[in-house]
Amino acid sequence: MPTLPNAVSTFFDIINGGDIPGLVDCFSEDAVVRDERRSHHGHAAIIAWQEEVRAAVNFTATVVDIVGDEVQVNALCHVEGNFRGSPVKLEHRFTMAGEKIQTLEIV
Q: How far apart are CA 98 and CA 84, in angstroms?
């Protein structure tokens, strides 16, 4: 299994209980996150998205498979928590811009 880029690995550390403001180190300034039919553009919106998620749901995301290269990384995750339908498998589709995440789509 390929290894995750540092920004992606740090992203998973943060969403699993790490310091949310640290997301700015993972994402490019003009990054976009698409999750649950909503788009979040830029650092402030991405931090607000993750704060909203954490306030609403307690969960853990465990990467179970990785496919990709230095530009496109798809991580299949086992996500378990206090939400309807738990546990689920969700694919996190990352597009990288150098060392930073440019886009993330969670499906």
A: 36
Q: What stretches of 26-103 show up as alpha helix (H) in DSSP? A: 42-56
pTM for this structure? 0.95
| Residue 50 domain flag | yes
- Spatial contact of 47 and 40, defined as CB atoms under 8 Å apart: no
- Distance between CA 99 and CA 97 in Å, rounded? 6
pLDDT on residue 1: 60
**Token pair for residue 32?**
């976009």
Tokens in use for 74?
Answer: 């798809």
Q: Which residue, among 65, 92, 62, 94, has the nearest Cα to 80 in the 3D structure?
A: 62
Model pLDDT, residue 32: 98
What's the number of domains the chain is made of? 1
Q: What is the CA radius of gyration of the chain?
A: 13
Residue with tokens 């378990």: 80
